[in-house]
Amino acid sequence: MKIALVHELLTMRGGAEKVAKVFADMFPDAPIYTLLYDEQKLGDWFPKERVRVSGLQTQWFPTPYALLPTPYRFNHHLYLKRFPAAVEAWDFSNFDLVISSSSAFVHGIITNGKPKHLSYVHSPARYLFDRTHDVLKRAEHGMFGPLRRRYLERTFHKLRIWDSEAADRPDRLIAASKEVQHRIELYWRRDSDVIYPSIDDFWLTTTPTPYPLPPLSSEALAKEDTPYFFLASTLVPYKRIDIAIEACNRLKLPLKIAGTGPDARRLKSIAGPTVEFCGYVPDAELKSLYSGAAALLFPGEEDFGLVPLESMACGTPVIAFRAGGPLETIVERKTGTFFNEPTADSLAQTLQNFRRENFDPAACRGRAEEFSRKRFEERIHNTIQSIMK
After folding, report:
1. Which residues neighbour 169 within 8 Å (Cβ) at sequence distance 6 or greater?
2. Is the pLDDT assigned to residue 225 strictly greater than 60?
3. What is d(CA 348, CA 126) in angstroms, rounded to the nearest whole number?
4. Helices 373-387 & 15-26, crossing angle to 10 degrees?
5. Distance CA 357, CA 23 (A)
6. Model pTM?
7. pLDDT digits (tens, 9 = 90+) for 46-75
8. What is the predicted pLDDT for the residue at 143?
9. Structural domain boundaries of the chain?
10. All residues at 6 or more sequence positions from 368 whose CB lies less than 8 Å from its CB, including other chains
């Protein structure tokens, strides 16, 4: 059976890319189609030889594109209007099955029933639906804010029309969580099956590599040997990392943040002396940071969230906002707890009442083991067998 894989953007390492990597490992002979590809960041996960990049990156304006600075070259917001045409241009007629990993556009590839199309949906594009007003509000700031907002309003309207039509194209939809399943039904009026993303075997088998933890910048906290809280995330506004920073500033609690992203400058500007930015941390050292933390903070509203499972696999409980995917993975009072409002006040109150000793590392690890890669692969193979009958 000839299989092709499709993933939106191979420009950063996130939860969706981890799922795409599992698909790539499951089907090592399958080519991987994508809209934009950053070999420097993801070449080790997705070798250049396997990647088929859209004409958006290779044909439409090859010389100007190559000359663009990297931050602009891989800023997908600049190309939103062109993405639908780019995904529709791919020809999959020589394949038996296409598996798409979609967060916005690639569920809209054209197959016409031959080959079959199985779409794993991380979420319908959130900036087209439940986050539209937040995106527009952020866009309207600055001298050109009103123009930018009007441009996005027109663009989003056209994309919603395309999205509603494209949602009927896949032969079968798989939702990454019940939260995503609900959105698929709400926005696309389609049924879907839930198959949770898997945690990588690495988190359950290998020994952590010690991470060099520098002394806290606050001498008082260092003397008291206060355990730190931890946050691992791409630094983007919707992750609501600012909530965690403000809460830890207020309580003078040490917080270590691993990750990079476009919101780094703003977040560093509001961080107090007990907040440390670790930048990009390799998984081997990241595991040590998870293991040494009092708890992982997960303040955003996520579709699913693999980071809480990674933390639990290391025996560390999670403090998460009570919404979205974490409600399906965290067992309250056993593997973590929740704060109820997306505010620093609500998180600070939960942090004040949090006691690390109330959570059993073995229970945390046991919960993470329920989301094993073996279970994920079995369910995907069963779905493929069903769709190909």
Report:
1. 107, 108, 109, 110, 111, 117
2. no
3. 28
4. 70
5. 38
6. 0.83
7. 999 999 998 877 665 444 455 555 555 555
8. 80
9. 3-124+167-198+373-387, 202-369
10. 199, 203, 204, 309, 310, 312, 313
Amino acid at 234: T
Pick the CATH number of 202-369 from 3.30.70.20, 3.40.250.10, 3.80.10.10, 3.40.50.2000: 3.40.50.2000
Length of the chain: 389
Phi, psi of 6 (to 5 degrees): -135, 130
The position carrying tokens 């439409």 is: 60
Tokens representing residue 108 in the block:
């809209």
